[in-house]
Design goal:
6 strands
Length: about 100
């Protein structure tokens, strides 16, 4: 599994309520997305950056989502281009299932 952390700098600060409204409008696009296990939207406490933390089955799945069209849509919607960081997941703790998973 791999995590991608997508971040964009906001042109104006957002409150959590503002972020929630915007994110609820895009969340349905990710239901059933091939290879996507989970997505968490976030906004920083300062409200100056926002984005998503995605858990993917593979990097190829993640890269197939982040097309030039997707990047253009994100840039237009949020007013800044996204920065994408990929990180490997060697160990994962799941407190809901009470398990530790390893790669």
């Amino acid at each position: 599994m791999i995590i991608s952390i997508v971040t964009f700098k906001l042109p104006k600060r957002w409150t959590v309520d503002e972020a929630s409204r915007v994110f609820r409008s895009t969340a349905p696009k990710y239901l059933g997305k091939p290879g996507l296990v989970r997505k968490h939207y976030y906004v920083t406490e300062a409200g100056d950056r926002a984005g998503g933390i995605y858990l993917w089955k593979s990097k190829a799945d993640a890269e197939s989502c982040y097309t030039p069209e997707w990047q253009a849509t994100v840039t237009e919607k949020y007013g800044a281009p996204p920065d994408i960081l990929y990180v490997n997941v060697p160990v994962s703790v799941d407190n809901l299932k009470q398990v530790i998973e390893t790669a």
